[in-house]
Every structure is written in structure tokens, then in C-alpha cells.
Amino acid sequence: MKIQTLTSVVALGLMTVPALAGQTYTPMQGTLGNPFNDGQLHGFGWNAAAGGGAGTLIGNLYDNILTIHGGAATAGFYGPFDDIPGTEAFVDWVGTQAQWGDDLHGISAGGPGPAVVTSLRYGYSNAVATTTHIIKLYDMLTPNKTPTVATLITKGALLASVVVVGNPTGAFLVTVTNLNIQLAQSAVWIKFAESGPGFPATLWLTGGAGGEANPDGEVYGVGNSHPGFTYTNKTEYYNLWLPYQYSYFMTTGYVAWNIQVALSGFHVPAPAVMSLLGVAGLVTLRRRRSR
After folding, report:
1. Is 201 contained in some domain?
2. Residue at 291 is within a domain
3. ∠51-248-124 over CA atoms, to 5°?
4. What digits encode the pLDDT tens for the residues 123-175?
5. Which of 29, 129, 161, 172 is found 20 to 30 A from 193 (Cα to Cα)?
6. How many domains does the chain have?
7. What's the predicted TM-score (pTM) here?
8. Nearest to 195 by CA among 96, 122, 101, 95
9. Within a domain: 289
10. By residue range, what is the domain housing residue 126?
């Protein structure tokens, strides 16, 4: 299916538009570091090589991917005095029924109207074949909870469920194109899940700066994510916000639990929306009169 035109985007509103998503894979240059397992989370630190297998920049709406991988974010600073630079890791929940998630804020900041996502990028690692990744975007009706308090969350409407098939074994950045997802707000919940022969082998790339400021007041990336992540139990429909801020990996250093993800697309200017809706109304009226 081809990408929908601006007119069809407006007419469809917030409906999820299925699309034949295309995907490309950029191998991540580096090695897995020491394993990590605290009983809830498990994964590996990542020792990125110089150059990092960087792809082209895509995250004009949101970009939490580190610059070494072609993103717009620089790792933040952690430790007792916020003076230790953060690194990155591949992480997932230990429980197989748990979905990995995060909050994305400031997506349509600086734009003239609602954002339409046409492509997204994320990173993963798996040691055995995993057939399918499922990335879901939910509307965030109200601002995220206090990021220092574990609390229940209520997601808004499901805006899209992006299915990515045929993922190869190894460590890759995946760019998914041919999307057409209109956002209602400038913030969404994002969820990552998997299915297939390798389940539950996928670990998700984390360690993005999340838009936090370092001691000099500099803010990195496009948009921001609170320090922490979400936990969704698929069997019990249980949604939590957990204020994990960072953990220490012996070979890589401090890793912030912000998912590295980038969203690209365009904005629908408010005047254009009204104009197109007006045209659609006239066309409908003319059709009724001609019957």
C-alpha cells in the first residue's frame, strides 16, 4: 500500500492506517559487554565501535538515538554529581509476558500542527532468529506521572501497531518506512514486543539521553523521555511506570533506561486541515445533490 496523501490523512483522523511497511537494517558496529540481570531486567552492555554503523539522520519529530549511531542524542551524565557520561545497553524484562516500553514527549514541538509519523528507527540484538517485532504507539492523554514514583498508568487510544518481520540475527538499527500515523498529542507511550521461533530472544537498545540536561544545562536529542520505563503484563493487563533511572555495567559504565528510538514525518498545519476539511465537505455536499 502506498503512503496516504495529506488529504486522506485528514479524512481518516486518528484511525490506524495499515501499511505495507518497508524496513532496512544497519549493522551496529561493536561488541556485547558483560551480562546484566537483577531479577527483573536482563541484558548486555554495548561497547560501540568508532563510527558505530551510523545511518542517515531521520528523527526530525523525535530522536533519542545516540550520535554514534546516526541519531541526534548524546549520552547524558549520571553518578552522584551527574558527572559520569552514560553509555548504552541491550535490555529487556526477565518475565516473558512483559512488554518493554517508554514515554516519548515533545514529538510535535516546534511544528505548526499535529504530527504524522512516516518512519521510525529502533535498535535490537538477538542471538537466535526472531521472526516478528511489534511496536505499538498509544496516545498519552495526560502528562506522564512523576518520574520518581512507581505508579499505574492508563494508556490512551492505540494509534498504530507496526509489525516488523524477518529480523536477522545480530545487533541492528532498523528503519521502518511507509508508515502513516497521525498523532493527537505531542506525547505517546511506545511498546515493544516480539513473537516467532526465537521468542523471547530480543533485547532492545537503551541508553538514549532522553532530553535530560547535563551539569552545563545542555539538552540532547529531539524531544525527551522521563528517566524510567513502562511495564505491561500482557496476561494481566497491568500497566506500570517504573522510575528506574540508570544501572552500572562494568564494561560500559552507567546506562540510562531510555529506549533509543527516532520518529520522522511531517506536520499538518492547522489552516491546511481546515481547508481540506472544507473541500471534503463541499465534495460530500455536491455528491448528495447529484444523487
Report:
1. yes
2. no
3. 45
4. 999 988 777 999 999 999 877 766 678 888 888 999 999 999 989 999 999 99
5. 29
6. 1
7. 0.82
8. 96
9. no
10. 6-284
